[in-house]
Design a protein that fits this description.
Elements (H helix, E strand, L loop, with lengths): L1 E10 L2 E11 L4 E5 L6 H9 L6 E6 L2 E2 L10 E4 L11 H11 L4 H14 L15 H13 L5 E5 L7 H18 L2 E6 L2 H7 L2 E6 L2 E7 H6 L4 H6 L4 E8 L6 E7 L2 E6 L7 E6 L4 E4 L8 E12 L2 E8 L4 E7 L13 E6 L5 E2 L3
Parallel strand pairs: 3-8, 3-9, 6-7, 7-8
Antiparallel strand pairs: 1-2, 1-4, 4-5, 9-10, 11-12, 11-14, 12-13, 14-20, 15-19, 16-17, 16-19, 17-18
Helix pairs in contact: 2-3, 2-4, 3-4
The site of adenosine-5'-triphosphate has 13 residues, from strand 2 and helix 1.
């Protein structure tokens, strides 16, 4: 449905988008995720036609639209700044696109009602934008785009002004509506949790480049770079030297004197290796466990986080790792500050990443 082919955007000598190639399937929910200034909005604007690439092509539904003006593209964009009509009421703002398209009265009423319900603004339909809060305006902008049922909907941080609980509700509603209407979503956020909850796939953007584009599971469990591993969720990043003794599936890496780890071979490495391990993938036990990759550690810190405990542990050589353990109230196996315990990392959970 959407394709970027080697798209670059420069302003003077500054490169905002740097050789991006990616595609979005029909009906897919793709999220562009990355820190402020990485080029997310610029990518969306090149898709909606408000910005032209310096080089590269943009395709929509198989058609090259690189040089087409916005109104010739079957996309709708929800802007980071809501861009509502100030002189129209909430309902009129939402109706606007349907009136332009000459949608019949009954269908219009039904579609507007549905959109208003989705964004929970039924009570505010007669107000003007100036009489709304920031979060309410954002919801009007969202309803106004959805009601048009475009082939592709571009959403630039559409939930950023909402409080946590409304935001979570809207995430669920939006995802449900997207599935129901089969609209292709290109969604922008810098909130990694939101991206994981809502997306089919995530494109992680850093300094104008795609670092990784994959399903949410792959992005989380198999990050390919240091940036992806540390930007999405928490990760322990461990450095080591590759040593002989591996096999087809595992690579042996020396971490410190007396500590070698077998790690999943599926990833980049040279003489040195860089390994990412999610904190919840580190197992702690009081007694020496069976199997490989087990070593003794000391518990330095213990933080209560409700459903989980966060522990900081240290190896004999001084390597510090963060561990998350489910707080199941099993007093007998509970681990506390100062304890000497055994730590085990399954080779599958030790992922080789690029610098
Ligand atoms: N018209 C412009 N002229 C010059 N530089 C620009 C222009 N528009 C954007 N930029 C720069 O391009 C880079 C990418 O901007 P963009 O708005 O795409 O970032 P973003 O990822 O959407 O960030 P945020 O999360 O803060 O919205 C930024 O460094 C920005 O300053
Ligand atoms: Mg932006």
């Amino acid at each position: 449905m959407v394709e970027f082919v080697n798209v670059t955007k420069r302003w003077g000598s500054f490169t905002a988008v740097d050789g991006v190639s990616l595609h979005v399937n029909a009906g897919e929910f793709l999220t562009l995720l990355g820190p402020s200034g990485c080029g997310k909005t610029t990518l969306l604007r090149m898709l909606s036609g408000f910005e032209k690439p310096t080089s590269g092509r943009v395709l929509l539904d198989g058609k090259d639209v690189t040089d087409a003006p916005p109104y010739e593209r079957e996309v709708n964009q929800v802007f980071q700044s809501y861009a509502l009509f100030p002189h129209l009421t909430v309902r009129e703002n939402i109706e606007f696109g349907l009136k332009m398209k000459k949608v019949g009265r009954d269908e219009m009423r039904q579609r507007v009602d549905e959109a208003v319900r989705m964004v929970a603004l039924a009570e505010y339909q007669r107000r003007r934008p100036s009489q709304l809060s920031g979060g309410q305006r954002q919801r009007v902008a969202l309803a106004r785009a959805i009601v048009n049922r475009p082939k592709v909907l571009l959403l630039d941080e559409p939930l950023s002004a909402l409080d946590a609980s409304l935001r979570q509700n809207m995430q669920i509603e939006l995802k449900r509506l997207q599935a129901k209407l089969g609209i292709t979503f290109v969604f922008v956020t810098h909130d990694q949790e939101e991206a994981l909850t809502m997306s089919d796939r995530i494109a992680v953007i850093n300094r104008g480049k795609v670092e990784q584009i994959d399903t949410v599971q792959e992005i989380y469990h198999k990050p390919k770079t240091n940036f992806v591993a540390t930007f999405i969720g928490k990760a322990n990043v461990i450095h080591g030297t590759v040593i002989p003794g591996g096999d087809d599936t595992t690579l042996r890496v020396n971490i410190e004197p007396g500590l070698d780890l077998g790690v999943c071979r599926d990833g980049p490495f040279g003489d040195k290796a860089r390994i990412a391990v999610r904190p919840e993938k580190i197992n702690l036990t009081k007694h020496r466990p069976a199997g490989e990759n087990a070593f003794e550690v000391t518990v330095l810190e213990e933080l209560f986080r409700g459903a989980i405990d966060e522990l900081l542990i240290r190896t004999a050589g001084g390597l510090e790792l963060t561990v998350l353990v489910a707080n199941e109230g099993q007093m007998e196996e509970a681990v506390h500050r100062g304890d000497r315990v055994w730590c085990q990392i399954h080779p599958q959970d030790a992922v080789l990443i690029a610098d």
